[in-house]
Amino acid sequence: xxxxxxxxxxxxxxxxxILLEGLAPDGGLFLPEEFxxxxxxxxxxxRRMSYAELAFAILSKFADxxxxxxxxxxxxxxxxxxxxxxxxxxxxxxxxxxxxLLGLSNGPSLAFKDLALQLLGSLFxxxxxxxxxxxxxxxxxxxxxxxxxxxxxxxxxxxxxxxLSPYGRMSxxxxxxxxxxxxxxxxxxxxxxxxDECQDVVKAISGDVAFKAKHRIxxxxxxxxxxxxxxxxxxxxxxxxxxGEVSFAVPSGNFGNVYAGHVARQMGLPIRKLIVATNENNxxxxxxxxxxxxxxxxxxxxxxxxxxxxxxxxxxFERYAYDLVGRxxxxxxxxxxxxxxxxxxxxxxxxxxxxxxDTGFVSGSSTHADRLATIRxxxxxxxxxIDPHTADGIKVGxxxxxxxxxxxxxxxxxxxxxxxxxxxxxGRDPERxxxxxxxxxxxQRVEVVDADAAAVKRHIERHAA
Length: 465
Fold this sequence. Notes:
- Helices cover about 45% and strands about 15% of the residues.
- It is α/β, with parallel strands linked by helices and about 475 residues long.
- The chain has a domain at about 90-110 and about 225-425: Rossmann fold.
- The strands form 4 sheets. A 6-stranded mixed β-sheet has the order 3-4-14-9-10-13, sandwiched between helices. A 5-stranded parallel β-sheet has the order 8-5-6-7-15, with helices on both faces.
- Helix 8 (about 170-180) links the parallel strand 6 and strand 7.
- Helix 11 (about 225-240) crosses helix 12.
- It starts with a strand and ends with a helix.
């Protein structure tokens, strides 16, 4: 398996060649030259596998330059009952006929991103040890990626983590979960601005080829292909658990989670619809409904009660757009040129936009009032407490539900991370898992800076491995 850039300017490389990277040298994103195709017999054999076995079967198709014994060992050590609280790893809960909730929040940081990042941390450590190298991981978070990445990489040999987050725009739990970590290799940087500005700083630093090479800058955001590959596994797991053709409702901000569903569908998984659920920051919903992609300015990004989706520039959308334009990097570049010049590109009525229907994507958006109503409804009808992002997904998923087609709603995080919204919806606090009871009272380590790449570079230079 070889990997190329969406911008067409990078030499094809194996999996370990792009594992530690964020952006490709030409500013694009890495993805496989082609997606592996699975025959019905392959899918049938996979149905009987445990989660770890399934993860190995899928990931070995994307990481075929890692010796099979090593990859199998890393996967088996990651997907354990001890780490994820269940042998199922991602348990499927039936709410009613043809309506399911996919449990993804049982990892150490209580969010779905643990499922990819716990493996990514082990892969990083493995490759660095083989090469005798060090790595400075640079990332940006709107809420959950940061804690999942830090929990995955804390104490790892030869790795330091520099995580940017939007100052004052996460829940108190999310902020404390990151800032209270005492590990010497973790550095939290709170940026005065919104998530998109954090992400822009990361991209600017990653685009500085000389600085990136000098300080060995790597990435854990969903621009890292390995995260997408690891997220494929639970789509397969859910399809096999439910049976037949399945639609997925996916809360979406940076587009990585639902893009993994797109890849799974291209590989042959019987996915009928991929339902993109946004909050009030509805850039993706606007694109899938009317073919208009308009990146909002920082001042236009709304602070909502589902803060991990307060994003207006979805990084992984470039990978999907690359597929829409027939994997033609020159056509893709023309779209980004138009976007950079005008802040928008419009595809309604074009051949490119007509292909969207063929990929199974539909969308919708949710408001604060919708979130509260959905949290109340799911609690009343099923006795299940959900977080506000999951509520966005269920609300939009039900709008696109089809008779006779199973609808699987993706869980995003545990409700304990968003107590204020749960309290408003249900008049009670969510229960906290053991070990998180007094999280906000712990000492916090964080540096607050302006949204300035130069300031972050100076911080990295002072603390880099």
